[in-house]
Design a protein that fits this description.
12 strands, six-stranded mixed β-sheet, globular, 27% strand, alpha/beta
């Protein structure tokens, strides 16, 4: 079931008029700013749902833990920040396991912010790219480079942040666990009979084919106000435990 979520932000029409009179550049237009703000909040809302439904150890049956010593029998691996960790062979072995159990080869790796830093600075990863650079185009490890090394379609880094404190306080945190990672198969061709570690279901609640709808309307007479509204209706569900492995304490 897809619940409808709504964000509404207001605009003072008198302030708006001042911008128009002063011929301020379009980028300073409060209406544009509020649309960008509402869109960003909806995207942040999606990230928070993703973190709660997919990017946590309790979401999956197959969970591996970073440790000071590797122990595959107990699903423990050397941390990404350990120079003795063998990232390519490790992920090759995990992908083979998923392929054998779920009949699909993993195609996506999602990394927390610290897990990405630990992996991209690993000596073995650097060794594989360091001879590809020039003075004009130095060799750097990017998510695309990691995807090529691991033979994956996508490597994503979860870097969204939010204020975890109450109103008037500040406690900025990463939405997704920065020390975790998720390796999975997510189908590029969604259908009822197509396996996938999880699915994101969306509903065009206004019937216009858009899963994110933005609208603008005036407030009550005499208030000289107007509002920007954003609507989204979505849900995320795990659909195949054997198509994913979650890694915690990666660094």
């Amino acid at each position: 079931k897809c619940e409808v979520d709504q964000v509404i932000v207001g605009i003072d029409q008198i302030d708006q008029l001042n911008y128009q009179r002063s011929q301020a550049p379009g980028v300073a237009d409060p209406r544009r700013a509020k649309v960008r703000f509402a869109t960003e909040q909806l995207k942040l809302h999606l990230d928070i749902i993703f973190a709660s439904k997919f990017f946590k150890e309790t979401a999956w049956d197959n969970v591996w833990t970073g440790a000071a010593a590797a122990d595959e029998a107990n699903k423990k691996f050397l941390k990404f920040s350990d120079a003795n960790f063998d990232p390519v062979n490790f992920f090759d072995a995990r992908m083979k396991e998923i392929k054998q159990q779920g009949r699909r080869r993993p195609n996506r790796l999602t990394l927390g912010a610290n897990a990405y830093i630990g992996l991209k600075n690993h000596p073995d990863i650097i060794e594989r790219v360091k001879y590809t650079g020039t003075t004009a185009n130095p060799a750097i490890v990017t998510p695309a480079a990691l995807a090529a090394i691991f033979q994956l379609e996508q490597v994503k880094v979860m870097e969204s942040t939010y204020n975890a404190a109450g109103i008037g306080k500040e406690d900025m945190q990463f939405v997704c666990d920065p020390s975790a990672a998720l390796l999975c198969y997510a189908t590029p061709n969604p259908s009822i009979d197509e396996p996938s570690a999880g699915y994101i279901f969306t509903w065009d609640m206004l019937g216009n084919g858009n899963y994110v709808a933005l609208d603008q309307y005036e407030g009550e007479k005499g208030t000289h106000s107007e509002f920007i509204e954003g609507l989204m209706s979505t849900d995320m569900k795990k659909t195949a435990d054997d198509l994913a492995i979650f890694f915690k304490d990666c660094v």
